[in-house]
Structures are given as C-alpha cells and as structure tokens.
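FAQ
Q: What does a multi-component entry look like?
A: The components come first, one per line:
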Amino acid sequence: MDNTYAASGRVVFATRGLTKVYRNGDMVIHALRGVDLELYAGELTVMLGASGSGKSTLLNILGGLDSATDGEVRYGDQDLVAGGDRLLTAYRREHVGFVFQFYNLISSLTARENVAIVTEISRNPMRPEDALELVGLRERLNHFPSQLSGGEQQRVAIARAIAKRPAVLLCDEPTGALDSRTGVQVLEAIAHVNRELHTTTAVITHNVVIADMADRVVRLSDGRVSDVRVNAHRKSPAELSW
Amino acid sequence: MRTIHRKLLRDLVELKGQVAAIAVVVAAGVMTLIIAVTTLDAISLTQDRFYRDYRFADVFVDLKRAPEGLAERLREIPGVDHVETRVSAPVRVEVPGYPDPIRGRLLSVPDGRQPDLNRLHLREGGLPESGRTDQVVISEPFSEAHDLRPGDTLTAIIRGRLETMTVSGVALSPEFVYQIGPADLLPDYERFGVLWMNRRALANAFGMDGAFNNAVLSLQAGADAAPVIDAVDALLARYGGTGAHDRDDQASHQFLTMELDQLRVTAVFLPTLFLGVAAFLLNVLMGRIVRTQRQQVAVLKAFGYSNGDMAVHYGLLTGLIVVIGLATGIALGAWAADALAAVYMEYFRFPAISFRLQPQVVLLAVAVATGAAALGTYRAVRGAVSLPPAEAMRPPAPETFRQGWLEGSRLGRLLDQPTRIIVRNLARHRMKSGLSVLGIGLSGALLLVGSYQFGAVDDMLDTQYRLMHTMDINLYFSEPTSAHAVAGLRHKPGVQHVEGFRNVPVRLVNGDRDYRTTILGMDAEPQLRRLIDTRGTPQRLPPEGLVLTDYLADYLGVRPGGTVQVEVMEGHRRTLEVALAATVSEPVGVSAYMERQALNRLMREGPAISGVWLLTDESQHGALYDALWDAPAIASIGLIGEAEAAIRDYIDDTVLVMMGVLLLLAGSITFAVAYNNARIAFAERSRELATLRVLGYTRGEVSWILLGEIAALTLLAIPLGWLLGTGFALALSEAMSTELFRVPFVITTQTYAFAAAGVLVATALSVLLILRRLRRLDMVSALKTVE
Ligand SMILES: Nc1ncnc2c1ncn2[C@@H]1O[C@H](COP(=O)(O)OP(=O)(O)OP(=O)(O)O)[C@@H](O)[C@H]1O
Ligand SMILES: [Mg+2]
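Then the predicted structure of the entire assembly, as tokens:
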C-alpha cells in the first residue's frame, strides 16, 4: 500500500516544542525535551523507543490525560494545552479511545460492564458484546478483571477503547502481555478500526516487528523524536509474527 | 441500569463494613439530637397541655386563717381571673400492712364538684360524693405505691383522732406533677401522698368552717403576677399570709422547670458534641473512601466522564450512606426518646404524654449529616479530579521518603525492616496519621463524656449522704417546740443521738434577685448534718450571720461580708438585713444556714426547734415508730436511708439512662472509627503487603506492618482522647449544674481507664476482622489489578 498521508493528509495532531518536566521534591526529570511531531488523519503510527524515553508521556498528553509543561499541542484546530478541563473532557469523551499500559480496568465491573461504562456516554458506539467479540472475548463477558489473565485484561481494555468508534485511538503497549497469536488478533482489531473508521491511530510498542504494520514509525529517545520513517509498504497484522 | 450506577451498588456492597461503620457514626449523631430534642419537646408540650386543660393556677398563697368572705376581695384585685380558696392540712396516714410512717397533704375540693383551678384528672373512680365526710381522692403515684383502689380504706390521723377513709377515686393534678413532700428533694411515693376531701368535711375537722387557709389564683391573659402578689400579700397580711408566690416557687413546677432547663442544656450540648464529632469523622471517612478510588476516577475521566459526573457519582455514594445512617438514627432516636420520655413520666405525672417528631429537628439532622458528608466527599473528589488522569493512573508511584531522625539514632539501627516501614509510613503521611489519631481520640473523648457521670454522681451522693446527712430519721413538729423536747426523745427506743433544728421559711432578696428557701438553724457543730467546704472538711457555723450554699450566693450575687434581705414567711412577717458570714459547698439542693440560737434571736423567740434529727438503731425501728406515733406534736417522720435510695434510683433512671444511651453510641462510634481506620489502612497497603508476601515475608511479619501502624495510632490517640474528653466533661458539668444538683467535676481513674479500654477493645475487634482479610489476602489478585 502506498503511503501518501504525509504528502496529502490532513494534520490531526501537531506538537511544537513539547516539554514535560516532572518534579518530585528536589528531583527534576525531563520526560519530554521539545517534541515536534505531526500525526495525519487516518494514519497508523507506531512509536518506538527505549524504556523511559517518554513514549507514554507523549501519548498521555496527546490523549488529554496529562498536561504539558511547555510547548504546543493542536488537535485539528483546537489547542489542547490552552483548553481547560471542560474542553479536554469533551475531547476525551467524543474523540479519543485510549489503551493504557497498565490496563486500568475497574475491578468492580465485569468485562462487558467495563466496556459499557464507556459506550454509555458515547454518541455512536458499538455494542459492548461486539467490541469484545473483536478482541476474541465473546465468552468472557461476565467475568470480573480479577478473573481474567493479564492478556485478557489487556484485550478488554482494547475493546473498551475501540467500542466508542473513536476518531483517535491511542494504545500504550497493547500487546505487551500477549503471545504472538493473541497479539496478532488484537492488532487486527486495531487495524480494523483504523481502516474501516479511518481512525487516526498511534501504537506504542517495544516490539520492532509491529512497526511493519505502520504507515509511519516514530522513534523517541531521551525525550526527543530521533527518527521518523515512512513504511513504503504497510503489512497486515496477519503477516506479522514474533 | 446505567453501568456507573451498577458500579455504585457494587462499591456499596464491597465496602459494606465501612458503609455500616459510617452509617453508625451518622446514626449515633442523629440519634442524640432526636432523643434530646424530642424528649424535651414531649415533656414541655405535655406540661403545657396539662396546665391549660386542668387550669393550673398562677399565684399561690398559704395563710393562717381568713374568713371565706375575703375571697371576694381577692377576686377584685386587678388582673385576677379566678380565685379558689381551699383548706389545706398536713396529715399522718396509715395504710394497712405498711410499717413506715406516711406523710400526707389533705386538700379540699368544693363539695361534690371539680374546683375552678387545679382541677383533678380522675384516673379511676370519682370525686367524694357531696356531703360525705369519709371519702378521699388520692394521688395516682400514692395509689400505685400501695395498690389502693377506689373502695379501699386507709387511716388518717386528723388532730390526733384516727379516721377511717374510703378511697373514692384516684387522680392527677397539675399542682403535683412532681409529687414531693415538704422539705424533700425527690418524690417518695410510698411515704408521701396527696389526698383530696370535701371542703366542708375537711374544714370541720380542722376548725376551718367558713374560712380558708390556702388560696390559688389565676391571672387574666397578659396580666403581670408581681402586682397581684403584692396586693394579695397586703390583703392577707392580717390573716397570717406567708407570702404569695407565682409558679416559679411552686414546688412541682419548680422541679419540672429545673429538669426541663437541664434537658435543654443537654439538648444543645450533647447533640452538638456528638453530631459535631460525627460530622468530622464522616468528613474524614468519606474523604478516605473516595481517595482509595482515585485511579478509578482517573480511568473514568480518561474516557470522557466529566468532573461533574464524578461529583454526582460520589455524591450518590455518600448520599446513600448518609440516608442509611439518617434513617437508622431517626428511627432509633424516636424509639429511644419515646422510651426515655416514659421514664420521665414516672417522675412527672401527666395524664398522657404528647409525643411528636418535629419536622424541623429531622431537617436539622438531615442538613448536618448531609453537609458534613458532602464536604468530605467534595474535598476528596476534588482532590481526585484535580490530578491529570495520567498521573492518577500509574501504578502507585513510589512515594518520596526521607530518613528521619529515628533511623539515624542508635534505637533506629535496632529496627527491623517491617518496623522501619511503619515508622516511615507514619512520618510520611503526617496529615493522615494526625487525622486518624484525632478521629480515634474524639471517639475516646465521647466514651469519657458518656461514662464520667457514673463516677461523678456516685461521688456527689457519697458527699451528700456519707459526709453531710448522717442522720437516719428526721422529725418535724407541727409547731415550733421548745428545745427541751430533745431530751424527751433521747429515751425513745433505739435512739442513739438527737439534734434539734429550727427551720424558718424565708425569701432571700438581694437587689432584683430573690429566692424562696428555708433557713436551717443548727448547733454550731452539728454531728448529724455537717456543713463542708469545697475540700470536704467540716465547717463550724459562725455565731452570727447567714451561711449560704455557694450556688445560691452566686445566684443572689452576694459575697461573705455583704448583706442579704431576709423576708420571714412564718408567724409575724418581717424583713431583716442579715450579714452573709460564709458560704458552703454542697452538691445537692440550695439552702441557707444559721447557728440555731442566732436564728432564734432573729425570730425574737426562745430556744425553739422545728424538728429533730435522730441517729438510731435500725433493728428497733418498729418500736420507735410506735412510740413516735403516739406523740401528736409530730407532723412528719422522714427516713433518710429511703431518701438516699430514692435519689439514687432517680438518677439511675434519668441521668444515667441518658448517659447509658450516650455510652452505647460513643462505643459504636469508637468501633466504627477504629474499624474504618484499620480497613482503609489495609486497602492502602494491600498491594505492598502482597508484594512482601511474594518476597517471602511471613504472614506474621506482614501483619505486623499493618497492626503496628494501627497500634501506634491508637496509643497516640488515647491520651488525646483523655484530654479532649476531660474538656468536654468539664463543659458538660458546668452547663448541667442546677439548683437541684451540681454534679461535681470528678473524673475517676476508672473512667479514664474505661475510655482507654473502650478504644483498645474497639481497635482489637477491628484488627481481628482485618486479620481475617489479611489471611485471605490473595497475593496474585492483589498484584494483578491496579486498583
Ligand atoms: N509521575 C512521574 N513522576 C516523575 N517522573 C516520571 C513520572 N512519570 C514518568 N516519569 C519519568 O519520565 C520519563 C518518561 O516516562 P514514560 O513513562 O513516558 O516512559 P516510557 O517511554 O513510556 O517508558 P516505558 O517503555 O518503560 O513505559 C521516565 O524517566 C520516568 O521515570
Ligand atoms: Mg510507557
């Protein structure tokens, strides 16, 4: 598949000089040190980088979960840094699907309910059952998180993220806990949403193989974008294995 | 149902222990409010109705004897509405089969009909039939005490003659709601009774034909009592009037008012304290619960739930808990108030108790509980939503810890790792630890307030009866008698010691303050009726001048060295200036004392006495009563041991029942707080504890981390609880002192020990419950789920 997003696509996200500093008492940690990056409508980006390089931090800021210390983040024509809590809430509610690195399911709700709690406040969601079907969890609808394996929890988290048919899908290591076969299944669900709904998708991973399914691969190191590579050919998840 | 609501219900079920505990705190606070306010309301409402329906008089006067024609003159006094003249006489009563002497008060009713004022509420039977001289209506408590019903008979000794009387009815009167004998502090239904008789029969027996020696008046609406009293006094001075007075000095009304005043203090003080503490705890507890859900808040926010949605969600959670607490508190409060009002009805005799739950009280309870809970929830939710979701969601970021002074010290090097964890946790969360200590301390303080009165009341009664009133019988003569009578009584069976006293009814006036009481004239160093100072050492009466109970001196605003106006209400009415020589400290009642001969001089009389105190051999009481029976000059025989028993019963029934309820509530609060504290400590630590288990720590070592922290907090909380409780108790003591009782501010060591033990037991129970959880702690799932 030919990649033309960078040339012709509409810019969905644009960051300029994005900086994030954590202060814990006397300790100062520069998680992001000036990130300039664009993500285009409908493209699938994979982000690579060493542990601690700032991937999660960047994704959290793009998803409106965290605020930047300095710099600019635009989503379409909205300024996410300047926008207050009301704007960010509406943005998350209507546009973003998020898969957390640590799943963060609500322990008192079943798999189905963990998805439903999100679809109930969305405009045009899938049925929770269908979303879980996509990640192969049709059979485990009524299990609580504590009754699911780590991988299964991760898949519930993905179902939860895609069920609202978001405009933007941000995934923090969605396959971290999965074996190759289930990992592919999950990636297919993500690719499916990306393809069918033209969802702008960003996936963080440590797994270089997964980069082959991306339109573009962004590499972070030490809080900066160190490399951007455009894949001439985007593989389908089924072709991947590790 | 929306999923978020389902989460709410699941959370409620999951947190059931804590929910129950918080609901208990709310319920306890609300219950005190409902009990105190509702009891107060029930009694005063009932009082108002009874007074109105049975036309309780406004002005009362005793006199020697006046012709009936004078009633018309009384009626003409401006402001007077109705006048009821009566014949009133003390009487000695015998009930078949009852050995102790009984004092009675005989009052006349118009022949065959109800009086205009102070009407009788007939419980059984009817008024004496017109023209009958041998029928009486008796007061209900007296009839109950001796199981006397209409048709039964009793014997009255009227002017030395034994008369057999038939009970025609049993009644209550607004005049004797609180039925006490003269010079008594508390009702003794067995040994004092009120009897009503036809006017003509009574007048005849006491030589009062066509005359009266007692009158009661009602006032026109809006009329002032003071000018009426002056006019009555002026009119009756010639007829031996002993001074008219209004309801404030009417014994039954006075006691009732005092009790209501005390209840009023309680009704403000205790609910404020309990509800205040409950509100504080609710605030802290709700805040904690919401804080443990910080990550869930973050997840929901990450998916677009707004801050408002979160506020509503936790608002509902809080609301449900508060509603459970409120409903329980209101229901139990109404039930307990009803029960307590029934106890009061044993002492305050009303026809029926009017009980109602006032909507404004319920509203107040709802407002306070909801407000406190909302505040706690609001602060916690705000805290949770103010964090960017990304931050709240990471696995609990390792907190920054610092080495404290302890670790560097020699002692510190001896600490093992788990103990180190405890010390650092406490130091790291100083605010939270501080609040826990304060919470447990406050509940301990409530325990102290709920229990100190048991010890203090005992102390008060011991002072009264072991130190001050050491006689066991007191006799009143019908008339002041020569002091030689003492010698005659010394030879009666079983009598070991006799002391005579003079008792003169007076009104003490200083400026615009006045108080009706009696001056008790005694030997300079009485053995059977000691006066003591604040330290409990016996005082010698000065040869001249007045000695007052400190409470009364304060009330009148005089100090030793100053003077008081004494209006003598016996014999020739005169007003004298008397110097205040000293004050004494007494926990029960308020009195005035003088050396007896000084009082005799003041009265311009010889060595007269009004009665005697006896110290006797109890085994010879039967013979003694027989001997005294035959002496017509003796108006009444009072048994001090019985009086002491009565007063202890009274206090057990009222004050201590109330305190018992409070204690129960304080206990529940203590348990609720301790349990919640332990439970939250567990929730906050379970991940850490599971990790340590995985690393190979034993269950015991891991338990120690949790229990050590709880134990440390509890041990810090106990002294704080003592301190706060002492403060509360002091405030309560001050607020509750009345003319009748001044419970001394004594907190016994036992009370302190009890409060500490209560806190320890509550903590131990909570810890046991937590240990069960710890045993079931599933390492895998504790580590698997982030929340
Ligand atoms: N709340 C925080 N307080 C302090 N430092 C933080 C905080 N969150 C992240 N950091 C630091 O910021 C840097 C970037 O963290 P980030 O989570 O973005 O890394 P990452 O690239 O996602 O790593 P990984 O692949 O291990 O998930 C790290 O050095 C991390 O320690
Ligand atoms: Mg990361």
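Q: Is there any commentary attached?
A: Sometimes. For this entry: The interface with chain B takes residues 24-25, 27, 56-57, 60-61, 63, 65-67, 85-86, 89-90, 92-94, 96, 98, 100, 102-109, 113, 116-118, 120-122, 145-146, 150, 153, 160, 164 of chain A (CB under 8 Å).
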